[in-house]
Amino acid sequence: MGYGKIASTLNLSKATVQSIVKAFKKTKETFPQPRSGRPKVTTEHKDRIILRAIKANRRLSAESLKETFEVFHEKDISSDTIRRRIMLSG
Prior knowledge:
Homeodomain-like_sf; WH-like_DNA-bd_sf; mainly alpha; Transposase Tc1-like domain-containing protein
């Protein structure tokens, strides 16, 4: 099966199909490789903990949540990071 036929079947451009096949031949994986950059301070699990705390008490300030987080999770994160995680969650 050619790139054109695959592209029309999947409703993708032929160039996209070619680049996916090329990447697969090179790495034997189809998902994107990790990119360089600054790592996040919190993990997805820690983000969920922050969101659960906010949902339990919406009047909780970012500053008080920061202090609680430092005590229970032994992780120093800024109140701006907490605000950012809340905003990104929707």
